[in-house]
Amino acid sequence: MHFFARLGERIEAVDSVVSVGLDPDPDRLPPSVADADLPRWSFNRRIIDATHEYAACYKPNAAFYEDADGWRALEETIAYAHGKDVPVLLDAKRGDIGNTARQYAEILDMADAITANPYMGQDSLAPFLQRTDKGVFVLCRTSNPGGSDLQDLELDDGGTLYERVAGLAAGWNEYGNVGLVVGATNPDELEEIREIVPDIPFLVPGVGAQGGDAEAAVEFGLADGVGLVNSSRGIIFAGENGARGGEPPEEEYFGAAGRAAKRLKRRLNEFR
Ligand SMILES: O=C(O)c1cc(=O)[nH]c(=O)n1[C@@H]1O[C@H](COP(=O)(O)O)[C@@H](O)[C@H]1O
C-alpha cells in the first residue's frame, strides 16, 4: 500500500495527525533507562507505550542514532512502532549523487518514509522517489531561523527558492509519494506553499519546543486530511517538568509524555 494511503488510514484510526518525534538526546534520558543495555531503545519503548494511541506516525531523527548502539536502538524502535501499527518516518534528510543516494535509499527497507534534502536536485532524490510505496518528504521551508538564508532568496525569474522547490517537488510526484517539509514557525509560507501544491501532504515540524503556529500547521499542512504535525522534545521530555504527585517516578515521567501527545492531538483537532 502507498505510504500516504497507509498514513491516511492511521490518521483516521487514531483521529490524530500528531507525529511524535523520537529524538532521544542521551544527555536528557531519565535515570530509569540509564542502566539498560540500549538506553535509547529502552526510552523509546516506554515513550511508544505511552503515546501510540495518539500517534499518526513516529519520526526518529537519524542524528540521535548514528553510532553502533544507536543503530540497534533504531531498529528495535522501528520494529516496536510497527508492532503497534504506527508508520515510521525516518528523519534522515538525505540527498547525494545518484550512486550514493542508491545506498542511502536502502534505509527505506526498514522505514515507511524519509526526509530528503533537494539541494542536489532530482537525480539525488530519484532512488527514494522510485520506492513507490514509501513516502519522501522534501525539505521546502524549514523551521530554523537560518532557513531564510537560502530558502527565501528571490530568483531572477520570479518567486523564492522555497517556492521553486515546491513546484519542482510537484513535478517529482509521479508516484504520489512526495510530501514537503514546511516549518510551523513560518505560517505565511505555509499558506503560500499550500497554494502552489494543493494536493501534497506536509510534514510540519516546529510546534512545541520551537513555538510554531499549531493552527496554521493544521490549516495548511493537510492535503485531503493527510499530513503530519510533529513535536519531539515537547512530548518525549514533557516528564522533565516535574512531579504530578502520587505516581512512581517512572510512571509519572512517561505518563507526562502520553498526556503531552494527547494534548497536542486535541489541540490540532480543534483546527481539522
Ligand atoms: O525535517 C524535519 O523533521 C525538520 C525540519 C525542520 O524544518 N525543522 C525541524 O525541526 N525538523 C526536525 O523536527 C524535529 C523538531 O523537534 P522539536 O523542536 O523538539 O519538536 C527535529 O527532529 C528536527 O530535526
From TrEMBL:
InterPro entries this protein is in?
Aldolase_TIM, OMPdecase_AS, OMPdecase_type-2, OMPdeCOase_dom, RibuloseP-bd_barrel
Instruction: Give the EC number(s) listed in the UniProt record.
Output: 4.1.1.23
Which family does the entry's similarity section mention?
Answer: Belongs to the OMP decarboxylase family. Type 2 subfamily.
UniProt keywords (A-Z) are: Decarboxylase, Lyase, Pyrimidine biosynthesis
Spell out the reaction equation it catalyses. Answer: orotidine 5'-phosphate + H(+) = UMP + CO2
What are the recorded Gene Ontology BP terms? 'de novo' pyrimidine nucleobase biosynthetic process; 'de novo' UMP biosynthetic process
Name of the protein in its database record:
Orotidine 5'-phosphate decarboxylase
Which GO molecular function terms does the record list?
Answer: orotidine-5'-phosphate decarboxylase activity
Q: Which PANTHER family match?
A: OROTIDINE 5'-PHOSPHATE DECARBOXYLASE (PTHR43375)
* Ranges where the Orotidine 5'-phosphate decarboxylase domain occurs: 17-248
HAMAP family from the UniProt entry: OMPdecase_type2
Do you know which Gene3D superfamilies this protein is assigned to? Answer: Aldolase class I
Does the keyword Hydrolase belong to this entry? no
Q: Which Pfam families match?
A: OMPdecase
Active site located where? K93 (proton donor)
Q: Which domain of life is it from?
A: Archaea
Pathway field of the UniProt record reads: Pyrimidine metabolism; UMP biosynthesis via de novo pathway; UMP from orotate: step 2/2
